[in-house]
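Morning. Coffee machine broken again, so started the prediction first thing and wrote up yesterday's gels while waiting. Chain of 255 residues, entered below exactly as on the submission form.
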Amino acid sequence: MPDDVLVVVQGLVKEYGAAHRVVDDVSFAIRRGETLGLVGESGSGKSTVARMLLRLVEPTAGEVKYQGRNLLAASPQEMRALRRRMQIVFQDPYAALNPRMRICEILAEPFAIHNEKPVEGLAARLTEMLRTVGMDGSALERFPHEFSGGQRQRINIARALALRPDFLVLDEPVSALDVSVGAQVVNLLRQLQRDHGLTYLFISHSMPLVRYLATNIAVLSRGRLVESGPSLEICHAPREAYTRSLLAATPEIRA
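Came back before lunch.
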């Protein structure tokens, strides 16, 4: 495997009982600094794949390697250290933030969990995190309910970036937002990738959105990969009828 490949997934399977296989023999690789768009309809298994990558859900079979290390063989202590480098942004910006905590407490959680003190001081780092996602440090003393959905998702992204990870799993991060706000968040993600050299797994049901953001696309249907390749190739010359139906199902993205 080339040195620039950051994540390798091989033969990933997830079963819930003998008769219910929700992910079936999924394999892909993601190079450093690139975005793989994992696209499919609701219920196709996309979020299960995302959670298995980070071992939030344990696979039934298969292999996940990060920087050449097999995550499924890692001890709890090793996974704790590796999770500094891998973070996830969830679909629902409302459910992902504790309504009883101030934004400063929410953003400080990763440092407390990993027992890390920012070199520049915690307060300065928290302010920097908000500015990175286009928000002002005055937000730190406020509560989640005081913010719009787009602002909450920016806060979730800031929290994911707290420990300066290499790899982000973005699980439908704009599907709960209206189109204009979602486009702003997508453009923010592109800018953050350029500025920080991030690698993304971007999960969506929207083929045009994935085409806009992703370097490569993997199409998932009923738990199986039916087509994968460079974004332009998949979108301009799809081989599978299912891929064509995804392309036809949602409008163009104007971000």
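The longest helix spans residues 179-196. Going to sketch it on the whiteboard this afternoon.
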